[in-house]
Specification:
This protein is mainly beta. It has 1 helix and 18 strands.
Length: 232
């Protein structure tokens, strides 16, 4: 009878061991260093990207005294030492959410993330388009082109605002040439007008601009006295 009782106890012990093994924690392996690398892999050696909530055992091999392995997320905040090396085992319980592992010394270069449970994926909706830029003046406006008396040339609205963007269409450009040392020329985007070098006075040009780039310049100093206007 005692022998049979002993056999029964052994059988019970086997069942207990088997039950414990079935409830074993998920095993993960983390490494940091010796270079600028940080990784977290599963038991099959695959990078960890998603896990189910629950208990996890993480064996971290810290191979550099210049880095650390810092894991943070819902309910978890564990780390190895920055100036130490060696193996460390963390037993943690993961909840739903996103987890990040980084080297605190180099967080922008050495980092990784994984999700636990049902985490909403990042939005894939296209970004909202930016509002169309406002033209400097309405089609049909009167614009003022001024050159001189110094080494200056500009194209402005009647309110004195620099012109940088116009819509295609008709405009009136009043060119005021205030220096015999310079001239005023517009070219491109369907326009081609100019005052002469040596001319001082005012000219009025009626132009119809097309899409493109309108260049405003002094011919004698085109590299230093010029501006451009986008027509779109």
């Amino acid at each position: 009878m005692r022998r049979g009782h002993g056999i029964a106890m052994v059988g019970l012990a086997v069942l207990v061991v088997a039950s414990t093994a079935g409830a074993a924690e998920t095993k993960l392996v983390g490494t940091v260093g010796p270079g600028f690398t940080i990784e977290l892999r599963d038991a099959q050696g695959q990078p960890v990207t998603h896990l189910e909530p629950g208990a996890v055992e993480i064996e971290v091999s810290d191979r550099s005294d210049e880095h650390d392995f810092h894991l943070q997320g819902p309910g978890v905040d564990v780390t190895t030492g920055i100036d130490t090396t060696g193996d460390t085992t963390f037993a943690v319980t993961l909840g739903e959410g996103r987890y990040t592992f980084v080297c605190d010394v180099h967080p922008s270069r050495m980092r990784g993330t994984f999700d636990v449970g049902n985490v909403a994926p990042p939005s894939t909706a296209p970004p909202k388009p930016l509002p169309a830029p406002t033209p400097s003046a309405a089609v049909g406006s009167r614009l003022a082109l001024t050159v001189g008396p110094g080494a200056r040339i500009s194209l402005k609205t009647s309110a004195g605002k620099p012109v940088t963007l116009l819509r295609p269409g008709a405009y009136t450009i009043v060119a005021r040439d205030r220096s015999a040392a310079h001239n005023a020329r517009i070219r491109g985007a369907g326009a081609a007008q100019a005052t002469g070098v040596g001319f001082v006075g005012t000219k009025t040009w009626k132009v119809v601009l097309r899409k493109g780039t309108l260049v405003v310049q002094c011919d004698r100093h085109r590299t230093t006295m010029h501006t451009t206007v986008r027509v779109a």
